[in-house]
Give the backbone structure.
Amino acid sequence: LRIRIVAAVALVALALTLSGQRVAAQVHESSNIALPVGYRSWQLISVAALGPPFSDIRAKLGNEIALEDFRRGTIPYRDGAIIVRLAWKQSRDSQTNSALGREPQLQGLSPDTIAKDLSQSFEAGAPTNVQLMVKDSKRYAATGGWGFAQFTNGKRDVVITSPRDPRSCFACHVPAKATDFVFTRYAP
Ligand code: HEC
């Protein structure tokens, strides 16, 4: 019996070590990026929305360095630039929708057409998560000079940051290489 207990303890310890290693490999260097103080007051770069199953609304904000680079079209972005992507679940508000139903452009249309139009009318509901890209060309040289991080309810999520992992943040941003791995364009 004693041998069995020892073997079981050893197995659990091995499993813990292995799972710990996996998490450590995924966290990589983005693990120490914090949510920047005051980011919610930063200026708007642009907005986006994703259909099902995400069904969200997104806003991209930037600090002063990022905003200046976006407006001037400076590529690559300078060290210190930070882009924050906020996202909310799409939500419908009956008060807003009934007011929108009185839009002059909708008058004369059939109730069905109006209902269809309003079924695509959304506003920001519950927040989902916040994603960050922080430019530091030396520190994050392996991922295009950008550090990536994600937060849910203000707490940092474990994200795959290893540049060789196709599921990583960086790997999916590679198609935007010509614009320094940034997809978003400034919306004037
Ligand atoms: C499946 C591909 C994909 C993955 C994985 C991905 N992104 Fe993105 N990301 C995009 C696309 C496309 C956009 C532009 C459209 C949008 O905002 O939804 C974007 C936009 C962004 C932006 C706004 C700046 C920009 O490039 O437009 C930030 C910040 C961002 N992503 C951070 C992250 C972080 C952090 C992760 C990892 C946790 C991540 N992304 C993973 C595809 C991806």
